[in-house]
Structure formats: C-alpha cells, structure tokens
Amino acid sequence: MLAFIVRRLIQSVLVMLAVALVGFALFTYVGDPINNMVGQDTSIEDRERLREDLGLNDPFPVQFFRFVVNAAQADFGISYRHGRPVEDLLVERAPATLELSFAAGLFALFVGVPMGIYTALNRRSWLSKVFLTVSLIGVSLPTFLIGILLILVFSVWLGWLPSFGRGETVQFGWWSTGFLTWDGLTALIMPAITLGLFQMTLIMRLVRAEMLEVLRTDYIKFARARGLSARAVNFGHALKNTLVPVITITGLQLGSVIAFAIITETVFQWPGMGLLFIQAIEFVDIPVMAAYLVLVAFLFVLINLIVDLLYFAVDPRLRVGGGGGQGL
Amino acid sequence: MSARASTTWSGRLGDALWRAWDSDLTYSFLRSPVTIVAAVVALGLIVASVAAPLIAPTDPFALATVDLMAAFTPPVWMEGGDPQFLLGTDDQGRDMLSAILYGMRISLFVGAASVVFAMTLGVGLGLLAGYAGGWIDALLMRVADVQISFPAILIALLIDGVARGILPREVHHEMALWVIIFAIGAPGWVQYARTVRGSTMVEKNREYVMAAHIMGVHPVVIALRHVLPNAMGPVLVIATIHLAIAVITEATLSFLGVGLPPTEPSLGTLIRIGNDFLFSGEWWITIFPGVALVLLVLSVNLLGDWLRDALNPKLR
C-alpha cells in the first residue's frame, strides 16, 4: 500500500515537473519578456540591466528552479496584457469556472444516471430508443454549436434566458457566487447544460452498459429466484454494483469539464478562467498561458491521483498483486 | 473465395473486388439500413466538398463575383429570398451554399490530414514499442499514460498558442493550416500506439514471425509487412472515429478564433462569423454551416460505430 502510494506520488511530481518545464520553456523561448515589459524608447543598457536584475542571464537550471519555486508559491509573474499579477487574475476568475463546472457536473449526473437506468431496464421501449438517438446526436454536436442553438432558441426567439455573462453575483470575501440571485441562476442554466450535455450522454451510455452487464450476472438471477421485488433487485443489487465505475469515470471527467469550459465560456462570454486563457492565446500573453497550463495540469494530476488511490481502497484485488496502477 | 487465380493486373483487381463483395463486412453492411444511410450521406458530403469548385454556384473567394449589395439575403423560401442564393448570403454577400461546400472541403482536409499524421506517428511508435520492448516500450507507454489524461483540445490549444508566439505574424498566417493539422494530429497518436502495441506483442511470438526472423528478414520489414497488416483492423476503427473528432476539434479551434484565418473559412470559421449576427435575426449564417458540420460528424460517427461492431469477432 505504502509503496504504491509513494510510487504514485513520485510519478505525479514528475508529471508536474514536465508540465512546469513546458510552461517555463514558453516563458523563456516564446517572445522576449523584456520587450513586453519596457517601452520602445528604453536604451539597450537599461534593457540589459533589467535582464540582469530579473535573472534572465542565469543558466537554464537556475532559472528553471526559480520558476518552479515561484510556481509552487502561486507566483506566475505579471500578465503582459492586463499588467496585473497572474495569480490575482486567476483567483478572480476561478469562482465563475468552478461554479459552472459544478452545475454542469450536477446536471450530467442527475439526468444521465436516471436515463441510463431507464434505457437499461426498458431496452425495447420507444423512449429508450429516443434517449439513445439523442445521446448519439449529443456526441456528434460540438459543444459550441449546442450553446449557439440554445442561445438562438431561448434568448433570441423566446427571450427567456440571458445569453451572456454571469448575471448578478454576491461577494463572499474573494469568492463571488451566482447561486444566490435569481439573475445569476437563470444565467447559469444554458452554460451548464451546454457544458454538461456531452458528459451526460457519456454517463448515460456508461450506466446503461454497466447495468446490462450486471443484470446478466448470476447473483441477479439468484436474487430474482429468491422472489425479491424488481425494485429491490434493480436498485438494491444491480445499481449499487454499477456505480463504482460510474464514479471513477465521472471523477476523471471532472478534468475534461474544466477544459471544455473554455469553449462554453467563449460562447456565453462567461467571465471564467477559460475565457482568460483563450484571450491569452490570441494576444500571446505567455504568463497567463503558462499559469493556466500549470494550474489545469495540477488539477488533472490531483484528480487522477485521488481516483487511483480510491481504486486501490475500493478494489481489494489490487492490494494483493503488489498494486500496478495501470489500466483504466 | 474465388477459384480463379488470375495473374493479370485486371484479373487480380477483379478477384479483390469479388472477395470484398463476398466478405462478412459487406454482409453486415447491407443488413444495417442506418449504416447505409450514413454511408450515403458521408459519401455525398465528401464528394460534394471535394468537387466544390465544379458544383458550387459561385466561388466565395473570388472578390469579383461577390456583391456587397446582396449581403444578408435570407434563404430562398423566406421573404426576400433570391433564387440565386439557395441558402441565403452572409454579411459580405457571399453565397452560403458555396461557402459551406468550400468550408467543408477545408474542414475535411484538415481532419483527414491530422488523422493521417496521428495514425502514421501512432502506428510507427506502437510498432516500435511492441516490437522493441524494454525501456523504449516503458518510456513510450509512460508518456502515453500521461498524455491521455489531458484532453486533446487543451494540447491543441497549447500547440497553437506556442506557434503564434514563435512564428512572426505573417508567417503564422501562411502556416496556419499546417499548424492546425499538427496541433490536432499530434495528441492523437496515443490510441493508435496503444492498440498497435498490443497487437504487435501478440503477433511477434507467432510462428510466422519467427519463421520470417529465421529466414533473415530485416526486423523493420517483418514489422511493416507481416505484423502490421494483422493490426490494421482496430486501427481503421480508431481512424474513422478520430476523423469525426478531428473535424469537431478543428471547428472548435476555428470557432474560438485560434484556428484557420477568415481568408480560408472552414465550417467552424463560418459558424464563428455567423455567431455575430445571431441577435440581428440572420440565423442562417450560423445554422446552415452548423447543420452541415453535424451531418458530416454524425454520419462518420455512425460508420465508425458500425465498423467497430462489424470487425469485432466477439459480436458475431
């Protein structure tokens, strides 16, 4: 157990270092940071002095070490475009993205799981076929197109929901929430559906497949033979065993939700981190790009680590065989 | 199986065609109406976009034929429609139908090129990992493990962002198409590599491979001529589904404004342009390219689903 955790932790640290190296290479080799900081009329001597002061003439490992130390303290320098510390920008934008991802995840789970159960239990009903067809279209519709269609119908034609922004927000210290105002909640509906739809179809198909698999097993047959009600068999026995992989996949998908939030945020002009990142790419705002990259990679590594450890805790077979964290 | 053993070129082609017609694949294809419809739609869209210069009513890139006065013409069945523009015109008076045909051509080209790139890279590395084993295998698969946990779109965005930083503005404008193909294709190698590696590790211990080895055939030749054909089935399935994903990714990048420049509008670029006019009521500028994109992706996805089931011996 301990050996597994240690190996897994070392691996995570190595991944983070690799990502940090990419982020640092961006800083160093893409564009000249000095040019981005000073005006046209700064003399060459001043530039050189600034370069020396900032430590840009130090050898590569020294600079990289400094970058890692700073990044570990959430210090990513100053945004070229906004002229403010990057970490302030990210902290300001983070609540918007996290609330959106949270709402999308809830939507995906609470709609996807029941739909999956229904289609598995009633395989031949017409409603199941409708659900499956809808899910196929859901997979083929690009996220941004879903957003545009929703805006067209519910904002332009019907005029029911706001088409951009977060609406009114309430401040709690540094955290701004849209959950507490009517305005904020209505503004959240369409972005959350847009972001969650793909995950919803994924969860639905997964629940359906797992459920069908479990329903075929001997212990379900035995439970039926014992005369248990369909309800007890389906929900007490079958569903419970279905949920382990569902929880794992949902956990792993959390990272994708945050990544795909970039697209949703662009469509709805949602003031989150994704929008910040896209604008950073357009304007080649390297510090913001590097910080976002490191932050998202950190989230991904963290989620993967937690899921792996949970797997280890849940599945006793892994503990016996010396524990290889490979596979799914 | 054909009893004829032809030696002429045309005879051999005939044999191959007969074998293809006689195969299980054709049988399962003809038994699935959804797949036939999907194949017809996909083929129709592909042919229409390849032949765009021949069949499009106008050339949307020829400035001489574009008439600004005709901008925002609605589709022909709506009030104010013009029979000359079947699906209406955009903000610059370009015919939407022609723009969609040309746009799909670009989308398909980028999609296909990135799939070929990812497939070549992935199959090559997969063969190498499976055949060589040892630390090469361990290293490649570690990298694959790490990379697959990041969404492809994020990596594509990053590659595009870096290219923007490194290349001067004019150069980037010219290179945009190739940058995008690289950005979409590069993260895709993992799935090919994993599949091919798995098959290779199984095949390399088979007798025919040993026989070839003893005969002194060069390992590279064994890998390419003997092992690879046995691993191609799953690769084809992945490639089909990857094509749908690549087209969506390209459209997404272009929609986000970090893909192809407006001078070479793909479907995603067209949707982005149309998005600005959603609120003024000119919905057709966005919706028609969107419909074309969905039709293309959906039909390719359906074909991929069918191919996966048809090539899976467990489901027979």
Walk me through this protein's architecture.
The complex is a heterodimer of chains A (328) and B (316). By secondary structure, chain A is mainly α. Chain A is built from 13 helices and two strands. Helices cover 75% and strands 2% of the residues of chain A. A two-stranded antiparallel ribbon of chain A has the order 1-2. Chain A is globular. Chain A starts with a helix and ends in an 8-residue tail after the last helix. Chain B has 316 residues and is mainly alpha-helical. Chain B contains 13 helices and no strands. Chain B has helices at 9-21, 24-30, 33-50, 52-55, 96-132, 134-148, 152-166, 169-185, 189-203, 207-214, 219-256, 267-275, 284-311. At the A-B interface, helix 1, helix 6, helix 7, helix 10 and helix 11 of A face helix 7, helix 11 and helix 13 of B.
Tell me the total number of β-strands of chain A: 2
Greatest interface: A-B, 46 and 38 residues
Q: Give the overall shape of chain A, derived from the CA principal axes.
A: globular
Indicate the proportion of strand residues of chain A: under 5%
Instruction: Give the H and E element order of chain A.
Output: HHHHHHHEEHHHHHH
As residue ranges, the low-confidence spans of chain A are 322-328
Distance between the termini of chain B: 20 Å
Radius of gyration over C-alpha positions of chain A, nearest whole angstrom: 24 Å
Mean pLDDT of chain B: 81
Helix content of chain A: over 70%
Instruction: Give the oligomeric state of the chains in this entry, treating copies of one chain as homo and distinct chains as hetero.
Output: heterodimer
Q: How do the strands line up in the largest sheet of chain A?
A: 1-2
